Amino acid sequence: MKKLIACFLVLLGLSAHSMAAIDNPVDQVRETSRQIMDVLKQENGKNTKQIRLQVENLAIPQFDFQRMTALAVGLGWRQASPAQQSALSQQFQTLLVRTYSTTMTRIKSAQIDIQPNAVIGNSGREATVKSAVSLPGNDKGPVAVDYTLYKTPQGWKVFNVSVEGASLVTVYRNQFNQEINKNGVDGLIKMLQDKNAALPAAK
Amino acid sequence: MTGKRSMLRASLIAGSLLLAGCASTHPSSPQDPYESFNRSMFSFNDTADRWVVKPAAQGYHAITPAPLRTAVGNFFDNFKDVYSAANNLLQAEPEKALNDIMRVALNSTFGLFGLIDIATPAGLKNNKTSLGDTFAHWGWKSSNYLVLPFFGPSTVRDGLGLGVSLGINGPERLVYHNTNEAIAFYGVYGVNTRARYLDLDDSLYAAALDPYSYIRDGFMQMRARQLGLPNPTQTDEMNIDDLVSSPATASAPASEAAPAAPEASHAEASAAAHAEASAAQ
Description:
The structure holds two protein chains of two kinds.
Chain A: H1 2-19, H2 25-40, H3 48-59, H4 65-73, H5 82-101, E1 111-114, E2 119-121, E3 126-134, E4 143-152, E5 155-163, E6 166-167, H6 173-198
Antiparallel strand pairs in A: 1-3, 2-3, 3-4, 4-5, 5-6
Chain B: H1 2-22, H2 35-63, H3 66-90, H4 94-109, H5 131-137, E1 145-148, E2 152-155, H6 156-167, H7 179-195, H8 200-207, H9 211-226, H10 240-244, H11 247-250, H12 267-278
Antiparallel strand pairs in B: 1-2
Helix pairs in contact in B: 2-7, 3-4, 3-7, 5-6
């Protein structure tokens, strides 16, 4: 049985490899993580702002915020006009960035292990890369972080991130839909704008 | 002890009556029919946290060194391993149960009454399971969301499991002998656990539009994954490809190409921040 599983894993690895001859999602996530951790390690308490900007420049091109926002909104996305969709994406991106850019220096000593085998879905166009993040001082063991990417002409882009099974994207769906049902898509855009305006800008 | 148990029973009955009375006709999530009860319990917990638990945890964090907090956490974990062993047996997992028993044996002796977790480095995996997991194992798969006082996010199934586990005479009775000592025991447990998540509050309130539903939906997704159930947000037969390739978007090229905003997202940071939160369980 174990042998069978091993064979299966090898096959999965091979297929993932051959499918993405140009660039493969696992290598991409691994490389980005490595670059980001290298930058974060230079943080010394004084250069926090530059470090944060550098990390943002590395991370932003890895994401497709439009697709991410569509996933967060769900079926309500169809009601939105193209202009509303890009406004929503813009606001959601700002919210995510503001939220997480302040916490990034906290993980500078984390150990990130990317699993070599991605789970390929949606007839080869989607891949879920699994990783384990160990934080020193967290004695509860490593935390499972999954990135879901899809293939675009510009390469693989992340559109979902989940931690221990909880998606940082779809966790918004009920909140968004509640607002869309009450005040329409414009209501949601306004709500996100207000929320972003109330958040203090990252130092 | 009987006093504590009858109190527990009374509160369980009171709780179920309250729940029945609160079943809302328009829940914002199909898994949350008791939303109005849950919201009031959420704000109760929030108030208790703001005025009592969090200040206590901050004080505790300030005066104790990290190794001591780890030791205290290990001490309580050792008791949980006893329950875990029993539940692994109930789930017909003798190997895992044996693993848990070995953990307790090793940690209670060489680990100085559980203060040092030497079992994990020795290769005995920490695979804790609870009575709620046992209920799920034998078929009680989906359960509605329920916010418990002090313990926070849970489900009806897991809350019942926790209530029963707290009600029976477990090994922790070796440590406390009367109600006051029991309060101290659970008080230290609560404060020590809370001290681990002091950094997290800000990012939660920054991230969430509605902290109540943010925590609820995150918790329900995480719990579904632990139990091997499909992600509850993936049930509405929504295909992401259909959404983004609808005629509406086809005319508007994705705005991802424009890195106009100086801000950017950072997956790893976010992940790790939330990781700490989810490791709470």
